[in-house]
UniProtKB/TrEMBL annotation:
Residues 1-127 form the Nudix hydrolase domain. This is 8-oxo-dGTP diphosphatase. One of its GO terms (biological process) is DNA replication. It catalyses: 8-oxo-GTP + H2O = 8-oxo-GMP + diphosphate + H(+); 8-oxo-dGTP + H2O = 8-oxo-dGMP + diphosphate + H(+). Its EC number is 3.6.1.55. Gene3D superfamilies: Nucleoside Triphosphate Pyrophosphohydrolase (3.90.79.10). Transmembrane segments: none annotated. Keywords: DNA damage, DNA repair, DNA replication, Hydrolase, Magnesium, Metal-binding, Mutator protein. It holds the Pfam family NUDIX. Belongs to the Nudix hydrolase family. PANTHER family: 8-OXO-DGTP DIPHOSPHATASE, NUDIX HYDROLASE FAMILY PROTEIN.
Amino acid sequence: MLVVAIALVAADGRVLLAQRPRGSRHGGLWEFPGGKVESGERPEAALVREVREELGIEIDPRDLAPVGFASEAEAKRHLLLLLYRADRWVGEPTALVADRLAWVAVEAMPALAMPPADRPLVEALARPLDRP
Ligand SMILES: Nc1nc2c([nH]c(=O)n2[C@H]2C[C@H](O)[C@@H](COP(=O)(O)OP(=O)(O)OP(=O)(O)O)O2)c(=O)[nH]1
């Protein structure tokens, strides 16, 4: 299963997380907005579609930069999760699907309940901030 997700980075460095609806798989956990890539769909096009559906914002695919990926064995399938980042978008993100949204400092993410695959991605996101 190929999933694409986005780290929307605000001017103050905080990143948008979405809380998965209670009752769904991983319900209540905080994640990067995104979703499954459909058959024959370009990953970047899937991400542009997902943020439109879930957040009501528009992103130019040229503003998507790769951060890293996670490869995670699940019970009945294998999850390949690609994380991109974007510093530019049009519109104000709205919780159209998630229970709620929050702008979170990357340093605060390890304390949040997130799906296991997201842990290495949070580290990848934090890495550029470690540089002098
Ligand atoms: N969008 C997103 N999905 C994530 C993250 N981490 C993680 O393990 N996932 C998993 C949860 C879901 O199984 C899948 C995302 O697909 P989706 O959001 O379209 O899935 P869905 O609710 O339909 O869930 P399901 O069919 O797997 O039950 O990737 C993340 O940071 N962002």
